[in-house]
Design brief:
It is found in: Golgi apparatus membrane. Pfam families: Glyco_transf_49, Glyco_transf_8. Pathway: Protein modification; protein glycosylation. 37% of the residues lie in helices and 15% in strands. By secondary structure, it is α/β, with parallel strands linked by helices. It folds into two domains: 275 residues, Spore Coat Polysaccharide Biosynthesis Protein SpsA, Chain A; 294 residues, Spore Coat Polysaccharide Biosynthesis Protein SpsA, Chain A. The strands form four sheets. It has a nine-stranded mixed sheet. 40% of the residues are buried.
């Protein structure tokens, strides 16, 4: 009867959590039957059209459009195919995209927020895709740093990323005044014919606030419908903006009817270049700016002005390819059912708070991808050869050399696990002090220590670099927490780096390395999230850096560590007050009750009366908190969870002949908290302790091989301890 079989995109995908083996067989069977029926329909339609063309009684004007969703400027056969097709390309008459054909996608992305938003778009594309993808990212320096690291650590098969410097393109569009909130970057889609490789023939261009509800290959297939001089695939604008009736004296840029929205564009680059697109849009913009003075909707205004003069350039896409969720749009006319939805566009500055009858449904669909575990998208495309990835090959080689029967296999494997990493998850803005004394506090944490952040900010006014170990859903909880905190939002000198959860261990030393690597100051204070530094420690450390000539000597400045067992503490404002609290038993030297060796070499008895810095010697199991130059060695990744993670680092500093110098007027206090999951495992699991001992011995052997005779003292000290 010509009715589509509607499949909800989230329910029909093989990688959906609700998907089962039995439903896969059912779906495959259904798809085969649907293709058979559709082929029969195609033959019947062809025969019918032949018969009708021979019949003089046939009236071609009888067929009316079904509803606005189906509007398009392709031929009538394509239009009918669009009506028959639901959400799946397999049901439609569109020419199929080759199984391993690469789909090219271009996105302009600049700044911290856009770099975060684009991840949700990419997740939605990856979730549904069955083809290799090539993303062309026009990015500023910030977005490039963030996204290059993210994709490098994401390691998604059959995905290639290329970056183009957005800052180099500014001069191409900076002459155009733009009132839109996207700023100068909102104009850069105009110069894609010049920016993208000259041999790239076609590309899908997307805004960062897009969510896909179907396979992007369906959209790629629409290129086959372009005819004549059609070079731009666009959806009609769904607001009344270009009609000019929104308010008195509202004067929009010229547009054809309602105009077109540029959140989703199909660009035939090769034809656009031959048409001299660059010259075309520039002349149009120059002419219109003489009376309009500036753009209101960035590139969209200029695209529409060009189309107004040259309507033959456009292939009008059905509006389900860009369901626009700004206030008061006609978007509801683009869908009758969930299965009609293909692309959702949050094109209002209000984003998720937009007014729409079905906004709750759209919001939930968006949140599904926002919080979706990105690790699950590392799926192979079977039958499609991937480009050789050196990092991936090396990783596989290292893993293959491990013995899976080894009882410590999981510990050893963690060392080689590549954790997806999103640097600078929130806005970061900091210029280090010009006197080269600046110090960054470095720490790592998981969700259960989030409450320490505000307190640390009140104690430390300098820059902070934090690595947070979170799931995708927890990262969004953190974002909401941070955005709701006046203390955190008032600080722009904190770098939040998300390392996404994977595996069964807490990769403490990887987290420390990530936080250490992304500091912009010459020195760093290697701390832990459970410690509150004394008030004024930041300025004190900057003075100490000069006093002890840290720039020209290998020193590790020790900040003595204390602890309280009280959840409510009147924090000591001076060394004298701290000593008084020590004497009263309100404070203790750190780990005094359970692990004295960890901080005993600090020599707290001497510290009580010291007025000048003093040197101490390394001893077994020493793990002080230190200030060092940013070029100090990384932490050893083999140590995960609880045990020996800091001890090994301090041992390496000693092997490299760092001097340990205790600061006489510095201190930090550990605040109480529930035991971590890893220390609980260490205490209760005998195999955990055996593996930790094995890793310690292997680390010491590596030290001996690397540092020679001088490192023998570590083996001796361990045996004597």
């Amino acid at each position: 009867d010509g009715k589509p079989v509607s499949l909800s995109p989230l329910e029909s995908q093989p990688h959906s959590p609700r998907y089962t083996a039995s439903s896969q067989r059912e779906r495959e069977s259904l798809e085969v039957r649907m293709r058979e029926v559709e082929e029969e329909n195609r033959v019947l339609r062809k025969q019918l059209s032949l018969a009708q063309s021979r019949s003089p009684a046939h009236h071609r004007g009888n067929h009316s459009k079904t509803y606005s969703m189906e509007e398009g400027t392709g031929d009538s056969e394509s239009l009918r195919a669009g009506i028959v097709a639901g959400n799946s390309s397999e049901c439609g008459q569109q020419p199929a995209v080759e199984k391993c054909e690469t789909i090219h996608v271009a996105i302009v992305c600049a700044g911290y927020n856009a770099s975060r938003d684009v991840v949700t778009l990419v997740k939605s594309v990856l979730f549904h895709r069955r083809n290799p993808l090539h993303f062309h990212l026009i990015a500023d320096a910030i977005a490039k740093q963030i996204l290059a690291t993210l994709f490098e650590t994401w390691m998604v098969p059959a995905v290639r990323i290329d970056f183009y410097d957005a800052d180099e393109l500014k001069s191409e569009v900076s002459w155009i005044p733009n009132k839109h909130y996207s700023g100068i970057y909102g104009l850069m889609k105009l110069v894609l014919t010049k920016t993208l490789p000259s041999n790239l023939e076609r590309v899908i261009v997307l805004d960062t606030d897009i969510t896909f509800a179907t396979d992007i290959a369906e959209l790629w297939a629409v290129f086959h419908k372009f005819k004549g001089q059609q070079v731009l695939g666009l959806v009609e604008n769904q607001s009344d903006w270009y009609l000019g009736n929104l308010w008195k004296n509202h004067r929009p840029w010229p547009a054809l009817g309602r105009g077109y929205n540029t959140g989703v564009i199909l660009l035939l680059l090769d034809k656009l270049r031959k048409m001299k697109w660059e010259q075309m849009w520039r002349l149009t913009a120059e002419r219109e700016l003489m009376s309009m003075l500036s753009t209101s909707l960035a590139d969209q205004d200029i695209f529409n002005a060009v189309i107004k003069q040259n309507p033959f350039l456009v292939y009008q896409l059905p509006c389900f390819w860009n369901v626009q969720l700004s206030d008061h749009t006609r978007s509801e006319q683009c869908y009758r059912d969930v299965s009609d939805l293909k692309v959702i566009h949050w094109n209002s500055p209000k984003k998720l708070r937009v007014k729409n009858k079905h906004v709750e449904f759209f919001r939930n669909l968006y949140l599904t991808f926002l919080e979706y575990d990105g690790n699950l998208l590392r799926r192979e495309l079977f039958g499609c050869p991937s480009e050789t990835d050196v990092n991936s090959e090396n990783l596989q080689k290292q893993l293959s050399e491990l013995d899976e029967d080894d009882l410590c296999y999981e510990f050893r494997r963690e060392r080689f696990t590549v954790h997806r990493t999103h640097l600078y998850f929130l806005h970061y803005e900091y210029e280090p002090a010009s006197d080269n004394t600046d110090v960054t506090l470095v720490a790592q944490l998981s969700m259960d220590r989030l409450q320490m952040l505000e307190a640390i900010c009140k104690h430390w006014e300098g820059p902070i670099s934090l690595a947070l170990y979170l799931s995708d859903a927890e990262a969004q909880q953190f974002l909401r927490y941070a955005q709701g905190s006046e203390v955190l939002m008032s600080r722009h000198n904190i770098g939040y780096h998300i390392v996404y959860k994977e595996g069964q261990f807490y990769p403490v030393n990887l987290l420390r390395n990530v936080a250490m690597k992304h500091i912009s100051t010459p020195y760093m204070f290697l701390s832990d999230i459970d410690f509150l530094p004394m008030y004024g420690l930041y300025e004190y450390l900057r003075k100490s850096v000069i006093q002890l000539d840290l720039a020209n000597t290998k020193k590790a400045l020790i900040v003595p560590a204390f602890e309280t067992l009280r959840y409510r503490l009147s924090f000591p404002k001076s060394k004298a007050e701290l000593l008084s609290m020590l004497d009263m038993g309100t404070l203790f030297t750190f780990r005094y009750h359970v692990w004295t060796k960890g901080h005993a070499p600090t020599n707290f008895a001497k510290w009580r009366t010291a007025t000048t810095p003093y040197r101490v010697e390394w001893e077994a199991d020493f793990e002080p908190y230190v200030v060092v130059r940013k070029d100090c060695p990384e932490y050893d990744r083999r140590f995960v969870g609880f045990g020996w993670n800091k001890v090994a680092h301090i041992m390496e500093l000693d092997a490299q002949e760092y001097e340990f110098t205790v600061l006489p007027n510095a201190y930090m206090i550990h605040m109480p908290h529930a035991p971590s999951f890893d220390i609980t495992k260490f205490r209760s699991n005998k195999q955990y302790r055996i593996c930790l001992k094995t890793l310690k011995e292997e680390f010491q052997q590596d030290m001996s091989r690397h540092y020679g005779f001088a490192a023998l003292k570590y083996l001796t000290a361990e045996n004597n301890s």
